[in-house]
Design goal:
Layout (H helix, E strand, L loop, with lengths): L1 H7 L21 H7 L4 E6 L4 E7 L14 E8 L1 E7 L7 E6 L3 E4 L4 E6 L5 E8 L8 E2 L2 H11 L13
Antiparallel strand pairs: 1-2, 1-9, 2-8, 3-6, 3-8, 4-5, 4-7
Length: about 170
């Protein structure tokens, strides 16, 4: 079983759930990683074309209304219940579906979306982005941390004065 021995070299045995193991070859129990995660967002693996994060959404909270212009997203509900809302405009979320454990939500690039935790326990989610959406190693303890990071990542607007108009 030489192939089995080679594969075992890459299995997540001693690495913390708080470590981005990309872009190296990696195998993990993603369901366990999601269920153990207590951070709002924790990056598990980031490669050149794909990224995996796990999320923990407290009771009554949400991931936050967002869209990724050039990134497709797949969200796997590992534990809990919620409501998935999507639509072409921020104020027109005309697609709404209840989600629960083992639901898989596919979000096309450019689609506004949100998932609200409607259950009585934290909503545990595994999220895949193609291409990656967050910087390698991103760990955000709370939604407020994620919102602060998002503001920092936004490109700065150029001042609108006469010198820049030439």
């Amino acid at each position: 079983m030489k192939g089995g021995l080679v594969l075992n070299n890459y299995i997540n045995r001693n690495k913390s759930c708080n470590m981005d193991c990309g872009p190296e070859p990696f195998v993990t129990n993603i369901s366990n990683d999601a269920r153990c995660n207590m951070n709002f967002r924790n990056t598990i693996w980031t490669g050149k074309h794909l990224q995996c994060t796990v999320m923990c959404i407290p009771e009554g909270e949400d991931i936050g209304l967002e869209k990724h212009p050039d990134t497709d997203q797949c969200l796997l509900i590992e534990c809990g219940r919620g409501m998935c809302c999507m639509g072409p405009k921020k104020d027109r979320l005309n697609f709404q579906k209840a989600v629960c454990e083992d639901s898989c939500v596919f979000v096309p690039a450019g689609m506004w979306h949100n998932i609200v935790n409607t259950g009585r326990c934290p909503l545990k989610i595994c999220s895949f982005y193609a291409p990656p959406e967050h910087p390698h190693g991103t760990v955000q303890c709370s939604k407020a941390d994620a919102e602060r990071d998002e503001e920092k990542e936004k490109p700065k607007e150029m001042p609108k004065d006469k010198d820049h108009m030439k």
